[in-house]
Amino acid sequence: MITKIPSKLKLSIAVFVLSFLFFLVYTVTDDIILKSPLGQQKAIALSIRLAISISFSTLLASLVFYSVKLIYSSMHSLVTLVQDWGNDDVYEETPVAERNDEIGELVRAFRLKFFQQKELEDAPSQEALGEKTKELSDSIQRAFYRIHLPKIQNLDISLLPRMSGNSNCDYVNVIPSMDGCVGILAGFPNSGVLESAFKARLEGIFSLANETGGIRGEELILKIGKILSKMPVPFLSLSLFYLITKTGELGFVHFQELPAFVYKNGELNSLEKTKARYFDYKAIDLDVKKTVLKMGEYWILVSDRTYSAIGVSHSEFTEQLQNALAGKNLQNSRDLVLNCGRILEKRFGKQILETSALLAVARKQ
């Protein structure tokens, strides 16, 4: 029964009981002194009563002092615990926390609060972490994505964008080869530091291949395919192609949801696409499909990011693009790419151009 009484009530009851007992003993003692023979002598009785009063007052004062000292000692213990927790000792167990009284309850409350606060400080929010990741990814993309498109004899080439600081945008580039050109369109369904770093490495590979020169287009894309198979990053959408200027031979590998297109005389036709949506790193050799790009025909690649950002299916996007270009007699790759950009901006908003990547290549006399 007594153990269930709170500490603050125990202290009050103890002070009351002891004070009452002191007063009772003092009263009884005073009566005894007054009725005793010594009490008849006023001088002696007064001295004795005064001494007893001082003694009981001292005892009562000592009791109060001891109670106050206990309170201050408890407060000092709490301050010490708080200071220890501030020095990263919040995870250490303490015997005070095991007490079944107000002090123990207060210690546990402090400990829980400090634990929660440290967890919040040590673990940044998912939103803040995502923002930092996006900022870093964008900075990587901004650093490498500066395409300097070379002039290649008897080829008409345009691409979009030339510069990009948005990590959601796919990488697109075209470089000359010994017999024509080699192009790439690569990206991922999600943006991140790893994805941006991979695209930066692709830029490095193409820059090195551009400086090397003297390699046939077909041989070059096979070499690039072998290099990519040694650094697997999942969910890579990839289109690689080569074009021989004299014969119009076009060889390509296509790992995308959107098909490759051929545009001629206001008509946009889609080529049969592979079943694999993402690049197969386990393949020993690339399965290069070949066709012939005739004079007046444009080879077009559009990144999967374009239709996925809109929120429509690839088949619906293909149909809308075909209808929008139907009947338009565009004379060069630049007009074709810009016209596609205007169509996307008009139908789906300017924001779609921040993540879209387009490429158009044609032979010319």
Automatic annotation (TrEMBL):
InterPro entries reported in the protein's UniProt record: RK_trnsloc_Pase
GO molecular function: hydrolase activity
Annotated keywords: Hydrolase, Membrane, Transmembrane, Transmembrane helix
Known EC number: 3.1.3.-
Source species, domain of life: Bacteria
NCBIfam families named in the record: RK_trnsloc_Pase
Protein name: Arg-Lys translocation region protein phosphatase
Gene behind the chain: rktP
